[in-house]
Amino acid sequence: MTTITTTNDTRTKEYIDNVFTRLKEKNSHQPEFLQAAEEILFSLAPVLAQHPEYIEHNILERIVEPDRIISFRVAWQDDNNHVQVNRGYRVQFNNVIGPYKGGLRFHPTVNESIMKFLAFEQIFKNALTGQTIGGGKGGSDFNPKGKSDAEIMRFCQSFMSELYRHIGPDVDVPAGDIGVGAREIGYMWGQYKRLRGAYEAGVLTGKKPGYGGSLARKEATGYGLVYFVAEMLHEKGESFVDKTVVVSGSGNVAIYAIEKAQHYGAKVVACSDSSGYIYDADGIDLAAIKEIKEIKGDRIQSYLQYRPNAEYHEGCTNIWSVPCDIALPCATQNEINGDSARLLLANGTKFVAEGANMPSDLEAINIYLENDIYFGPGKAANAGGVAVSALEMAQNSGRTAWSFQKVDEKLQEIMKAIYAESKEAAETYGFAGNLVVGSNIAGFRKVADGMVAEGVY
């Protein structure tokens, strides 16, 4: 069990234990969801002890149960005229603050457990942004890798032919995630318009600029992560200047985290993809990474063609053996376990912030907290993407388009506010410096107060 917080309040402890026990009994086959729930539930002990009304209204047991889970068949035809079948999901978890909001993930590992964990985390992440958006998530076990554009288009159209029944600008607003970029959003957006016979731009975010999309959306999660870390560094009287940084992943989040960290004066020495990682002691050549990943769609190993003195290592998990001051996991869930966290600790890492969703397991988180590694959890540190998605919704509602500078300035303000709220909540409830507790409590209170106000239904 997590040791993120403890409490001497017997009623609170028994309540959390009972809720989590029942949750495990009902969801024993969903390890990712249980991991996310455990991390959040037990960190809420301090706020529950001071606010017994949350226990009286049984908020925890209500908040861990989704409003609804939609599962559906997606049949589509490949280029060889063979019919393929995948499974689609949409988890609409909580809409107390606003319409369900969260990305769509196309990846072969997608299952109900992963969808529920992502949607559950999204509730609190979205609340932290200060925007009026609730929590949801969706996707499919479809693998876009190796598929032609025509195959991806046909899949997206089939996927939307069912999903459109369950979404809308004021109901549920999906976005992109792993395997879903502007291309996939565009195909789904076109199908939605055909089926609805209406131009409802706010129903999907992550669209291309010029076609209802927002400038700075592609950069938002990576930039936002670095803006959040800049606040963490400032708290300790430090900055990115001359810091050594390791970033896992090489998708949008990683690329734009590297870009902004380098802009702030850091030396980023490693990044990865699912096959392995590269180490460049002279600092990552970002232009090369962008060409490899954004233009050619190649594997990270081809970086050696640009920088022959760099090193390539098979297997992406060993990237955490590279010494660094700041670690930014931006790849996928549970990429840092206890052993990896101990490596970071032994190598002198002082700051870890999550660009991906739940990339650190519970053992790793406890190692950070117990050894004074200043840790920015994903629901706070990577909230920049959904924050700008909400800004895209605002632009769509106003039928306008903002400049890159305006969106970026708003993003910076939002990330600073998330850090400040998380820090303040941790201090208020007796866990100063623990941003896990702080972000969970800050997000939870906004949602819980709304649930109390709405009553039971």
CATH superfamily of the largest domain: NAD(P)-binding Rossmann-like Domain
Query: How much strand?
Result: 5-15%
Helix content: 40-55%
When the domains are counted, the total is 3
Distance N to C terminus: 32 Å
Structural class: alpha/beta
Uncertain ranges: none
Biggest sheet details: 7 strands, mixed
| CATH topology-level fold name of the largest domain | Rossmann fold
How would you explain this protein's 3D organization?
It is a single chain. By secondary structure, the chain is an alpha/beta fold. The protein folds into three domains: 1-65 and 433-457, Glutamate Dehydrogenase, Chain A, domain 3; 68-200, Rossmann fold (3-Layer(aba) Sandwich); 218-376, NAD(P)-binding Rossmann-like Domain (Rossmann fold), CATH 3.40.50.720. Helix content is 47%, strand content 15%. The protein has 17 helices and twelve strands. It has helices at residues 10-26, 31-43, 45-50, 52-56, 59-63, 112-128, 149-163, 182-196, 217-235, 252-263, 286-296, 338-346, 362-370, 378-381, 384-397, 404-428, 435-454, and strands at 68-77, 83-94, 100-106, 134-140, 172-176, 244-247, 267-272, 276-279, 311-314, 326-328, 351-353, 374-376. The strands form two sheets. The protein has a seven-stranded mixed sheet with strand order 9-8-7-6-10-11-12, sandwiched between helices. It has a five-stranded mixed sheet with strand order 1-2-4-3-5. α1 runs antiparallel to α2, α6 (112-128) crosses α17 (435-454) and α9 packs across α16 (404-428). It is globular. The mean pLDDT is 96.
